[in-house]
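Bit of a strange request maybe. I'm writing a small parser for structure token strings and I need a real example to test against, not something I typed by hand. Could someone generate the tokens for this chain?
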Amino acid sequence: MIFSVYKAEQGYWVRVLTAVCAGVMVLAASAWAWSQAGAVNLPPKAYLLDLQAIDGAFNPGDSIELIGTAQDAVGTEIVIARTGVVGYTETGSRTASLEIGVPELAEGMRVDDAERIRSSSAAAIVRARQLIPVFPLIYLQAGVTGGIMVLGSIAVYWFVASNHRTVDFLINTDGEMRKVNWSSRKEIIGSTQVVIVAAVLIAALLFIVDMSFQQFFQFIGVLES
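Reply from user aminoacidic:
Good idea to test on real output. This should exercise your parser:
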């Protein structure tokens, strides 16, 4: 079976700890992918414009044109977009919000090219613009992160539970670990004490030798007192 565990009764702790370490690596890769996906600039589905009237006022249902100027000698007026109606406003308001879909823009034109707004009841300028992506960025982050976690989980399972070569290697590692002669608590304490005493004695010896050389070189005039 695809989810069977090869030699499940052998090498338990080596396999578990290997899976834990690999899982931490998968989680770290997922966190990195989440942050990287968050920096992706998705193509726009539409633009949300905040409009400010400079002549007249807005009313719900006003038709809108985005006006720009062609880059030629005579400065020809061009219509960048003809869109639907004003939304997100009250009758007689000096401000309004307008959502413009990318398909509504004239070919080769961008919302940034708009210099002013012309509607059936007001002339206005674009006060602010906000890009609306084709789908929420969090969907991309969740998809990439989830894909890495799923693939990583499958890879870890294959490595520690399914693949015969890697499982036999981990089982053999567990067997070799059992042959290790682990020191007792008393032996570890004794060895630590020996190391500490030896380090102190060596430091003291080096200090004495250093001071002796210092006094000698000062005596013969190589070093100033």
